[in-house]
Design a protein that fits this description.
The protein is mainly alpha-helical and 495 residues long. The protein folds into three domains: 340 residues, no CATH class; 57 residues; 76 residues, no CATH class. It contains 21 helices and six strands. The strands form three sheets. Strands 1-2 form a two-stranded antiparallel sheet. Strands 3-4 form a two-stranded antiparallel sheet.
């Protein structure tokens, strides 16, 4: 059972989840409700159920990219990041605007990075920012294609208006369920992603073949919060999306939902990513994208096919302004909130992290492809933050974003000690027999950096091996990394 005090910090994530449900459910069922093809209560029930399923089953992929942008390492910081995003989304929801929860949480994370002097991975940030442009454009293109094909199909089969109305209603419900699943899978990273590094739950082993990880438990709670938001406060924004951008026919409403759902699914599915990679095709980055941008782009795509005369461009302009303001407001609230939380309420908003370029770290970085010949003057120097470490390295030579993340990862002081007492308490069902045997062989060993333990395990038995960064190995590597993360937490030496 998690500490009740810890659960208090999670309330901000629940508030953000509620805000997302109140705002972003409109993007799933807004067009259906606005066109009066589906009742609000029906839409809310279906949306709530499938959001929870998507968050719990498929929410991990997008969360990993969000974690690269900035890993908030203290519950107080996670609390304020989620609260800032939640307040921003709630304010926009009160105005009736379908804003981006993704943009809100990105703003909060960058705000935390600035406050804590943590490194902001520009490559991950640019990847996310690019989706803010790609997402609505892609949704508009997909919507236009589906709309054209659907009209041709309906015309050729000659369905009567009454039967078409019934089929469209069913199609809207099915598309909404798919959209809600995709929303949960893609956007749960926005709700609980900042809590993943400090997750307070232990892995639950339900059977030999099924476990419920700490992250999945977080995502389940977040999914429930989203569902409550759908039921309690989403109707107003649904009407904005469903009827105020432009009047949609029932068929056009279905097309908008499908296009929105497909876009969210594309940016959330790890299996699709692997499938495309196996065919040597370009893959789509797994990032939390804006469902608001997707549905607005879809509606505009349909409107442009009709000449653009029906689109209420003034409303579109207001929505776009909301997208621009959202990350700025969220980041500012987070900065101010962290200051007050730390200095007025005396809460820990960042955990002390030290970084050192020891000889072992230098060799590891050299093995990872970083040219160290210009960095010997930095050896054995300790740095109080990840940003100060990278500034010191880049004062000697430029460092690409990917290598900067490696420098941070390997230089972090995170001592672990394998003791017989803790070995007796470990959940052996998490590991295979060979993996557990390798771990027991390290009894009594001490390591300054957690990665040293991972390297030692890999040397003993190949079942601990991380195969590399090829996409086809991604799911295997993620499973190994989750097991290693469990070991690091279990054997960590408290500072």
């Amino acid at each position: 059972m998690a500490d009740p005090g810890i659960l208090i910090f999670l309330t901000s994530g629940l508030f953000l989840g509620w805000s997302l449900g109140a705002n972003d459910a409109a993007n799933v069922f807004g067009t259906a409700v606005g066109s009066r093809m589906v009742r609000f209560t029906t839409a809310a029930l279906i949306c709530g159920i499938f959001v929870i399923l998507g968050a719990t089953i498929s929410g991990t992929g997008a969360a990993l990219t969000l974690g690269k942008l900035g890993a908030v390492n203290a519950l107080g910081g996670s609390f304020m990041a989620a609260l800032s995003a939640g307040l921003t989304v709630y304010w926009m929801t009160r105005l009736g605007l379908p804003v981006s929860t993704s943009q809100a949480i990105i703003g909060s994370i960058v705000g935390w990075n600035l406050f804590s002097d943590s490194y902001t991975d520009l490559a991950s940030l640019l990847k996310i920012l690019s989706t803010w442009v790609i997402c609505p454009l892609l949704a508009a293109i997909i919507a236009a294609i589906i709309y054209i094909l659907t009209k041709i199909f309906v015309r050729r089969i000659g369905i009567g208006l009454i039967r078409l109305d019934g089929y469209t209603r069913l199609a809207l419900i099915l598309a909404g369920a798919f959209g809600a699943y995709s929303l949960g899978a893609n956007n749960i990273a926005n709700v609980m992603g900042v809590f993943v590094p400090v997750a307070p739950f232990q892995e639950m082993r339900l059977s030999d073949n099924f476990s419920f990880s700490s992250t999945q438990q977080l995502f389940l709670i977040g999914g429930l919060a989203i569902a409550i938001g759908v039921f309690t406060y989403s109707k107003r924004v649904m009407l904005t999306v469903g009827s105020e951008l432009m009047r949609l026919t029932p068929l056009a409403a279905w097309v908008a939902v499908m296009a929105h759902s497909i876009v969210l699914f594309l940016f959330a599915s790890e299996k699709l990513e692997q499938f495309l990679a196996s065919l040597s095709l370009p893959t789509i980055p797994l990032v939390p994208v804006s469902s608001s941008q997707a549905v607005v782009g879809a509606v505009i795509g349909i409107g442009m096919l009709q000449g653009g005369r029906e689109i209420r461009w003034g409303k579109v302009t207001n929505i776009v302004k909301g997208w621009i303001i959202t990350p700025l407001v969220s980041g500012m609230i987070c900065l101010l909130g962290l200051y007050f939380l730390q200095n007025v309420f005396m809460q820990t908003v960042q955990r002390e992290s030290l970084y050192i370029l020891s000889s072992k770290v230098m060799q590891k970085l050299k093995d990872e492809g970083i040219d160290m010949k210009h960095l010997h003057g930095l050896q054995n120097t300790t740095y109080p933050s990840s940003a100060s470490l990278i500034r010191a390295i880049e004062s000697q030579k430029p460092l690409p974003s990917k290598l900067a993340l490696k420098a941070i990862k390997y230089s972090l002081l995170n001592p672990v000690t394998i003791s017989s007492e803790k070995l007796e308490l470990i959940d052996t069902k998490v590991f295979s027999t060979k993996q557990m045997k390798a771990l027991k062989q390290l009894n009594g060993k001490k390591y300054e950096h957690s990665w040293q333990l991972g390297s030692a395990l890999e040397t003993i038995n190949q079942e601990w091996e991380i195969l590399g960064e090829n996409i086809e190995h991604k799911l295997h590597d993620r499973a190994i990394k989750q097991k290693l993360a469990y070991i690091y937490r279990h054997f960590s030496v408290k500072k």
